[in-house]
Amino acid sequence: MRDPLSALTEAFTSFVLGKVETTRLPVRTSTGQAQAVYLPTAAPGLGDSGVIIGREVYSGKGYIYDPFQLYGQQLPAPHWLVLGESGNGKSALEKTYVLRQLRFRDRQVVVLDAQGEDGVGEWNLIAQELGITPIRLDPMTALDGGIRLNPLDPAITSTGQLALLRTIIEVAMGHGLDERSGFALKVAHAYVNETITNRQPVLTDIVEQLRHPEAESAEAMNVDIDDVRAWGLDVALVLDRLVDGDLRGMFDGPTTVGIDLDAPLIVFDLSHIDRNSIAMPILMAIVGVWLEHTWIRPDRKKRIFLVEEAWHIINSPFVAQLFQRLLKFGRRLGLSFVAVVHHLSDVVDGAAAREAAAILKMASTRTVYAQKADEARATGRVLGLPRWAVEIIPTLTPGIAVWDVNGNVQVVKHLITEAERPLVFTDRAMTEASAPTLSEDLAAAEWETEQRAARFNGSSESTVA
């Protein structure tokens, strides 16, 4: 039976308004209906396995990245290009990324450290905290017990040795070897490898053979011995710089015994080499080929090869060709190559444009920090970034970058834990400030990072470091 008061109210409303008041039921909806109405506004993430980088700026989700986990279905290649002007956070990103990767037991990292101050490289502090001694290549100390790397190390195949010798000479000369000079070098290298069996052949042996070729070598090609000597003279003069010139000591002897290639972090300190000299690309070529034959092995370890000032590699057609082979070879053996460059225009407008494009194409991950508008547009064209990303690059603040992981483009804020902070910033004030050591706070830093990742992704089961 209806309530009399309700009936009276309904009659009065009908008399005044000429209609019956509609009863409004409470709104009810399901999760599926809400998802259909409010479409997602953020692109899907990269999964929850790997290392935490930071937070997506627009969605607030945690950003987790690992090329080894993504390789295959989401990444055609595990290689990574990092771009941006100084002071925007590239160095801090590199160092935290390496520290977090090293928390996995199957990871190993090599760093070519080309920057530094007070006689040590930027990675010296991290190496100290991990109990690792950097491999310091310095022409001033090489003759007094310093580190040497031998381009003719027996660990390198004969084909690899000859390719490396050609690269060294071509980089120094600024052009490729002609057929006659290449023949003279090939003959000298073959003779040295065949006749010296009681020790490691060294560059001095090649120089000596180029200056005084064997008659048998000339006769085998039906050429005059004086012609062979003339063809090899320029080559001998170039190699002589590594033997008796300003680079003396680093490459003209047997490889130093005791270099630990099983350490989780291996740092080659190149900070004593003039970054603008011809020595730097030569040095990187030698280190790269030596590592290819001595460090990369068919085991289950995942390896990261991080190169600062990588334009020395990408901008030289001869060095770039060596590293292209390394990158192709490394994909099958779990190698992720990380190239750090200030400006893309440094490497795409020169003589090595074709080789640079080939290496850039292999880098399926690209991280771009703040750049000027013109540079951002040029970078966007080369990398194929969407227009919105190109427009935002000049406005980025330090620590925030555009990440393009095989077409998945996000704006990401890099997060640094308190334990990492004194180790990754290059400012003297930061590195000299008193702070807990890595060994003391490593467990706390791991917990903090894991909790942050889990909170961002809404899951407590994320596998992160």
TrEMBL record:
Gene3D superfamilies: 1.10.8.730, P-loop containing nucleotide triphosphate hydrolases (3.40.50.300)
Domain of life: Bacteria
InterPro entries the record matches: P-loop_NTPase (IPR027417), T4SS_component (IPR051162)
PANTHER family in UniProt: SLR6007 PROTEIN (PTHR30121:SF6), UNCHARACTERIZED PROTEIN YJGR-RELATED (PTHR30121)
Protein name: ATP/GTP-binding protein
Organism in which the protein naturally occurs: Streptomyces jumonjinensis
Organism taxonomic ancestry: Bacteria, Bacillati, Actinomycetota, Actinomycetes, Kitasatosporales
